[in-house]
Amino acid sequence: MTIEYSKPLSISDTPIPGVLVLELPVHGDNRGWFKENWQREKMVSAGLPDFAPVQNNISFNRTVGTTRGIHAEPWDKYISVACGAVFGAWVDFREGDTFGAVFTTEIDPSRSIFVPRGVGNAFQTIEQNTAYSYLVNDHWTAGAEYTFLNLADETVAVPWPIPLDRAELSDKDRGHPRLAQLRPVRS
Questions:
Q1: Which of 46, 76, 131, 142 is the most exposed place for a label (fewest CB within 10 A)?
Q2: Residue 21's beta-bridge partner residues?
Q3: Which residue ranges in the chain fall short of pLDDT 50?
Q4: Taking the model in full, what pTM does it have?
Q5: Active-site residue identified among 134, 139, 146, 176
Q6: Distance separating alpha carbons of residues 161 and 91, to the nearest angstrom
Q7: Looking at 71, 132, 146, 176, which residue is catalytic?
C-alpha cells in the first residue's frame, strides 16, 4: 500500500452511523514521514466528536494475515496504523435499522477511523510488521460488557483479503457466535 502524502485533513461518513473515516496529512521526505496522528482541536473542528480519550493501546502484528475481532467494547475508539496496513471491518451491533450493517476499508498511516461504542471492530493485516494503534475513552475493566461476532459470520460476509482458513486467528475469535445469536447493543 502506498502512503498518499500531503493530502488535507478530511472526515467522511460511512454507511454505519457514527463510524467516520479520517484522511490524515502525512509529510514525507528522504528520511521517512511525519503525521499528527491525533490533534484534538483540528479533528474536532473538522467534525470528529470530542470523545476525550483516556488510554492508548497498540497491537503489533508480525505477519500478513493476522486477523483480530469482531469485538465491540463499551467505549469509543479512534483507530490508526503507525506502520504497515490493515483491511478493517466494522459491523453495527446497535439496535435499530442499521443492526448488522458492514463497512470495510484499508487503513495505512494516512487514514484513521473513529468507531462509536456498540460497533464491532476487526482487522486483518495486509503488510508485515503492522502496528495498529487505538485511543479509547474509557479504561479497560474485567467486568465490562463486550459483544463478539464470529469472523466468518455468513450474514455479514466480510470479504477478507486472506481467507480465514489461511489467516492467523485466535481460538477465542474462531468460537464467537453468529449474528443471529447476538442481542443488539442498546445505544
A1: 142
A2: 12, 113
A3: none
A4: 0.94
A5: 134
A6: 17
A7: 71
